[in-house]
């Protein structure tokens, strides 16, 4: 089940639910010589939290691409260079990008083959591409599942497996170049902001829950205000790829 999410509607409240992922940016900066002369593409940049923080940290030339006019508008308020595009069309010339990344995007992409083909086209030969996503075991261990047990199944149906991503990448000339796992949780405490975000269904997967389960889970969550929870096995995975040469068809 991959129900399309209306990101134009979510754009005004999006930054209340997510910010820059400093763990991921640390990984980028530890691995890559990013600086003033580097062109970095964030594919599916949304409101630009990741790209703005990366630019501030290393001075790279960031370009964001996103299909949602609402998300683009918020990103432009942060001074970012944002272009309209998606998996079928990245509006950049061939071989002009030094590093590309996609954070929390691939589960929204209807055609991974088209996405990898476009990224292969715009990246320079030998350049890295990083995907931050969640594996199915990580989805099954997620923080919210204790209150909303159907989410594990809903999210496993939405997210491509890591194997499916590696297979699609390999079909389009990308070599796997190591995975990194973020095993700590960015969310582990039930605070008032979290409860408000759940009440407003600011995370789109909450809108896919049966209403009865949502109401019961919300009541239990409110009762857990102030408590901290461990979620062993939850987290994120950063998949690294290197743009190589496509095999002859
Ligand atoms: C969960 S947000 C992530 C935004 C940003 N990368 C971040 O980390 O905050 C997903 C973004 O993917 C974009 N998106 C959805 N479908 C896409 C597609 N087919 N190609 C590129 N981006 C897409 C959405 O418009 C949205 O801005």
Distance between termini?
31 Å
Portion in helices: 25-40%
Q: Bound small molecules, which ones? A: S-adenosylmethionine
What assembly state would you assign to the polypeptide chains in this entry?
single chain
H and E string: HHEHEHEEHEHHHEHHE
| Large-scale geometry | globular
Beta-strand proportion: 15-25%
Concise overview:
The protein has helices at residues 7-14, 22-31, 49-58, 69-76, 112-122, 136-140, 151-158, 162-171, 192-199, 211-223; strands at residues 39-43, 61-66, 81-84, 99-103, 128-133, 174-182, 236-243. It is of the alpha/beta class and 249 residues long. The model has no long low-confidence stretch (mean pLDDT 94).
Sequence-ordered SSE layout with sheet pairings:
Blueprint: H1 7-14, H2 22-31, E1 39-43, H3 49-58, E2 61-66, H4 69-76, E3 81-84, E4 99-103, H5 112-122, E5 128-133, H6 136-140, H7 151-158, H8 162-171, E6 174-182, H9 192-199, H10 211-223, E7 236-243
Parallel strand pairs: 1-2, 1-4, 2-3, 4-5
Antiparallel strand pairs: 5-7, 6-7
Helix pairs in contact: 1-4
This protein binds S-adenosylmethionine.
Describe the 3D structure.
The mean pLDDT is 94. The relative contact order is 0.16. The protein is built from 10 helices and 7 strands. It has a 7-stranded mixed sheet with strand order 3-2-1-4-5-7-6, sandwiched between helices. The protein has 249 residues and is of the alpha/beta class. Bound molecules: S-adenosylmethionine. Residues 7, 18, 43-46, 49-50, 66-68, 71, 86-87, 103-105, 108-109 line the site of S-adenosylmethionine.
């Amino acid at each position: 089940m991959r129900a399309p999410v209306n990101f134009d509607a979510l754009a005004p409240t999006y930054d209340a639910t997510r910010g820059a992922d400093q763990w991921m940016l640390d990984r980028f900066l530890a691995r890559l010589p990013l600086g003033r002369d580097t062109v970095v593409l964030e594919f599916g940049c949304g409101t630009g939290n990741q790209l703005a923080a990366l630019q501030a940290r290393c001075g790279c030339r960031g370009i964001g691409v996103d299909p949602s006019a609402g998300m683009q508008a918020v990103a432009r308020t942060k001074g970012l260079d944002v272009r309209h595009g998606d998996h079928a069309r990245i509006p950049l010339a061939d071989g002009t990008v030094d590093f590309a990344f996609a954070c929390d995007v691939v589960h929204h992409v209807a055609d991974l083959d088209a996405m990898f083909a476009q990224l292969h086209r715009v990246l320079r030969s030998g350049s890295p591409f990083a995907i931050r996503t969640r594996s199915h075991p990580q989805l099954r261990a997620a923080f919210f599942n204790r209150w909303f047990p159907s989410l594990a199944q809903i999210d496993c149906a939405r997210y491509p497996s890591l194997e499916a991503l590696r297979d699609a990448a390999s079909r389009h000339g990308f070599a796997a170049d190591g995975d990194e796992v973020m095993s700590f949780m960015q969310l582990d405490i039930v605070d008032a902001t979290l409860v408000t975000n759940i009440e407003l269904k600011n995370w789109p997967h909450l809108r896919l829950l049966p209403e009865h389960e949502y109401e019961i889970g919300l009541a239990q969550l409110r009762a857990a205000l102030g408590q901290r929870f461990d979620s062993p096995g939850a987290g994120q995975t950063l998949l690294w790829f290197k743009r190589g040469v496509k095999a002859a068809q």
